[in-house]
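Hi D.,

Good news: the full-assembly prediction came through. Inputs first.
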Amino acid sequence: MQFLVNHTRVEFIRGDITRQDTEAIVNAANSSLLGGGGVDGAIHQAGGPQILEECKKIIARQGGCSTGQAVITSGGDLPARYVIHTVGPVWHGGGHNEAALLRDAYCNSLQLAQVKGIKSIAFPSISTGVYSYPIKQAAAIAVAAVREFAGNNELPGLIRFVLFSNRDLVVYQATWEEATGSR
Ligand code: ADP
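Then the structure:
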């Protein structure tokens, strides 16, 4: 499914983030930036050692990446030219600023993409794997952040949500339709 917000196309697909040919893909990283499981492991595996080398330079410079922040490396062997590494919050029940931090992860990734002049970007479902964020609540935050950013900015002109399961895809699409009144 795809929708238009001002000049930005917003897409929802089921797929593998490492296979996306958008100019940037987003990694659901952890603050060490040293790799992990899930999306993070898949990106480092498919992208090769160059991504980790660049992450290590960022670590040397700023000591990692705080929750809600984002950093950028090249895409190594991936089809995408860049990887934007952002750190979503671990779910601790909702009373630990999780919603604001998840929103920050989306907004700061989009902001970084815009500053770099990136025209297309693909997001996985940040925090809803190992970090256990409830999918419906995470989808509402993701959708709201993307809608607002697309309403106020020209770049990126394509924002794609790449969901790993059909169940997650249905949740994200339904959330978008509820939020926008579109069908
Ligand atoms: P987090 O630690 O932020 O929760 P995870 O990587 O554990 O991140 O999971 C985030 C979401 O990404 C989960 O829904 C998981 O199923 C999904 N996922 C895992 N691998 C991929 C992939 N290769 N492409 C897209 N989504 C993926």
